[in-house]
Structures are given as C-alpha cells and as structure tokens.
Amino acid sequence: MSPTVHRDGPYRFYFFSSDRNEPAHVHVDRDECSAKFWLNPVSLVYNLGYSEFEARLIQRIVEENRVRFVAAWNRHFRT
What we know:
1 helix, single chain, alpha+beta
C-alpha cells in the first residue's frame, strides 16, 4: 500500500508501507518522473526525470509541508 499524503498540482506525495525501516521520507511522482526526499532534515535522496528547477520547486513544497508529512508518517507507522 502507498498512501497519498498530499497532492499539489500535478504532484502526488506518498510513501510505501514497506518503507517502515527507513528514516521518514516522502516520494513524489508526476507522469514518468519520481523523486524521494528525506524529511528530517529535508533533502533530496534521488531524482528520476525532474529538471533541476522542478526538483527545487518540489523540495520547497516538501519543506512547507514537512510537519504534516512527518505526522502522517508517524500515524501510518505508529511511531
């Protein structure tokens, strides 16, 4: 299962239930592009297909929603 925690324009922010043993993070997809960001602190783990400009834009969205994303992570994994 991969619960969606946020949508912003064309971007879907989610995490995989199988990611339990990793630090809190969020995946972001649009079309065929994908990225992963750690949440504490926010930093890009990988970027598959986004331009540098778009990756920075997405990182700002993650930073603005970090508290919500961490809360959703903790609820989902009950940590």
